Amino acid sequence: MRLGIDLDGVVADFNGGWMLAYNEQFGAELTPAQVISWDGLHTLTHFPDMREFWRWAKDHEGKSVFRHLQAYEGAVDTLRALNRAGHDIVVITAKPDWAVHDTFEWLADNRVPTREVHVTENKWMIDCDLYLDDSPYQVVELVGNRPDRVVCRFVRPWNRPVQGARDVHDWEEFSDIVGQLQG
Questions:
Q1: pTM (two decimals)
Q2: Which of 53, 93, 95, 140 is a Cys-bridge partner for 47, taking CB atoms 3.0 to 4.6 Å apart?
Q3: What is the pLDDT of residue 62?
Q4: Angle (nearest 5°) at CA 42 between 161 and 162
């Protein structure tokens, strides 16, 4: 099967990564558990809005904050196992233009088993058998535009259940769903 996999919030710990950089630079003590909304990250910081947050995220020692993220426990190992089982891992991620090169470097450094990467806001346009995403907007778009496909919502505090999407709480559960669908 073709597995359409989002990166940030699913494979890569975006909140843990930007918070580590922010805490080091500004002497703060933010934790990922504080993130409960999608577009409200700036409310946890001194930045007046998301525009300023993204301006800050753009440059960290010559790389964007996306370059310095850690993978969630079990994420890359599960993707490798699914790939060994014959599934195609299709990375579908939404990124600012300034983060694209850092994303490709991150994928290479973490040895994510993919031959196909799409950087797009229109994730539903990429044809896959199963999708996994954490974005409250993307899950709705995927369910609405790909009703004949399986869409999984990686459950996070910043998203809510979506009718037609299957909830996934961890990588083991996702692997089980793929196995069940494979038969």
A1: 0.96
A2: 53
A3: 87
A4: 10
CA distances from 157 to 82, 106, 137 (A): 26, 25, 14
Is residue 168 domain-shared with residue 82, that is, in the same domain? yes
Q: Are 45 and 22 in contact (CB under 8 A)?
A: yes
- Render pLDDT for 20-38 as a digit per residue (tens, 0 to 9): 999 999 999 999 999 999 9
Angle in degrees, 0-180, between the axes of helices 75-84 and 171-182, rounded to the nearest 10: 20
Distance CA 25, CA 17 (A): 13
Give the domain extent around 25: 14-68
Task: List, in sequence order, every beta strand (DSSP E) within 96-154.
Answer: 116-119, 130-133, 150-154
Its sign, for the CA torsion 82, 85, 87, 88, is: positive
Residues 6+ apart with CB under 8 A from 15: 9, 32, 35, 41
